[in-house]
Amino acid sequence: EEQGLLGSRGYVKHHFADPATMELKPEHDKLSAYFNIDNGTGKIRGIYMQENEKVRDIFRDWFKPFNDLGAGTLTISTTGGTDHGSFDAVGLPGFQFIQDPIEYSTRTHHTNMDTYDHLIAEDLQQISTIVASFVYNAAMRDEKLPRKELPKPRGNNQRGF
User: Fold this and answer.
1) Helix axes 121-140, 56-63, angle to 10 degrees
2) Which of 99, 100, 56 has the alpha carbon at shortest distance from 76?
């Protein structure tokens, strides 16, 4: 992600689909969801649903045990600039959690200050618990998470991927 999403774009293209053609690979049907944390130490407050209204009730239920920790916001909005976008670009459910912005935009983002000593242990405990729960719940579902309609092929235009 730190190098222009090149890693996740390459991974998605190799394993799931090429956004230029939208020719799906067999693994595309096997992935239920991709969950991403990319905004530093801040606690999780919710999740961007990436315009996938079909996951609202599912995520609402999954957040219920964590409402007392301040987590539960569901926004239909999209967000970009993180690896989840590479998955979303080929029709796979990719989601970024909403986090407190603890010094992320002002001090640590893409700087030499982005080091472990700026992490807050309590935040990491909350984050890891919620992410583990979401991954577990996704894995234990009888069906994959609902998907949006497949995007149209982009040709050689890679913008937004």
Assistant:
1) 130
2) 56
Q: Does 108 have pLDDT greater than 80?
A: no
Q: Whole-angstrom Cα distance, residue 135 to residue 71?
A: 16
The Cα–Cα gap between 102 and 146 comes to: 32
Distance between CA atoms of residues 124 and 140, nearest Å: 24
Q: Are residues 30 and 142 in contact, defined by beta-carbon separation less than 8 angstroms?
A: no
How is domain 6-140 classified at the CATH fold level?
Aminopeptidase (3.40.630)
Distance between CA atoms of 10 and 64, rounded to whole angstroms? Answer: 35
Calpha distance 65→73 (Å, rounded): 13
Q: What is the pLDDT of residues 8-51, one digit of tens each?
A: 898 999 999 999 999 999 999 999 999 999 877 899 999 999 99
Provide the H-helix boundaries in the chain: 6-15, 56-63, 84-88, 121-140
> Residue 99: phi, psi to the nearest 5?
-130, 155
The pTM is what?
Answer: 0.85
Burial class (CB in 10 A: 0-12, 13-18, 19+), 157: exposed
